[in-house]
Design brief:
Strand content: 25-35%
Number of strands: 10
InterPro entries: Post-SET_dom, Set1-like, SET_dom, SET_dom_sf
Organism: Melospiza melodia
CATH topology of the largest domain: Beta-clip-like
GO molecular function: histone H3K4 methyltransferase activity; RNA binding
Number of domains: 2
Strand order of the largest sheet: 1-2-10-7
Pfam families: SET
Shape: globular
Order of helices and strands: EEEEHEEEEEE
Keywords: Chromatin regulator, Methyltransferase, Nucleus, RNA-binding, S-adenosyl-L-methionine, Transferase
């Protein structure tokens, strides 16, 4: 129940690349840990600017808490390919293992083989809106 599931990345109808189940996943199971480099907010801000200057269109920065962000842009795992969806089949949870905080993706419901893994990014509300591309019936229209 707690082993990493068999997953693959491939072309997504939501946004460029996505992550897909290669085996059935039951509800409330661990799907994958979001892996990358733990950095502070000030470093994340600098990297975000540098990535934009380098032409890296997508950065993979995931906030753990007020002080810590996981940067999976250059040294992450397949979890970075999980797309946002307004009606997701998974959710992210911060857990602590041996005094270290980790982000783990869990299934909200049963997920079938070849189904895309998604979660709600829960971006903070900002004036500059990021369009949502999930196209579900209850799509909010923006990620933030």
């Amino acid at each position: 129940k707690f082993r990493k599931k068999r997953l693959r990345f491939g072309r997504s109808r939501i946004h460029e690349w996505g992550l897909f189940a290669m085996e059935p996943i039951a509800a409330d199971e661990m799907v994958i840990e979001y892996v990358g480099q733990n950095i502070r907010q000030v470093v994340a801000d600098m990297r975000e600017k540098r990535y934009a200057q380098e032409g890296i269109g997508s950065s993979y920065l995931f906030r753990v808490d007020h002080d810590t962000i996981i940067d999976a842009t250059k040294c992450g795992n397949l979890a970075r390919f999980i797309n946002h969806c307004c009606t997701p089949n998974c959710y992210a949870k911060v857990i602590t293992i041996e005094a270290q905080k980790k982000i783990v993706i869990y299934s909200k419901q049963p997920i079938g083989v070849n189904e895309e893994i998604t979660y709600d990014y829960k971006f903070p509300i900002e004036d500059t809106k990021i369009p949502c591309l999930c196209r579900t019936e209850s799509c909010r229209g923006t990620l933030n």
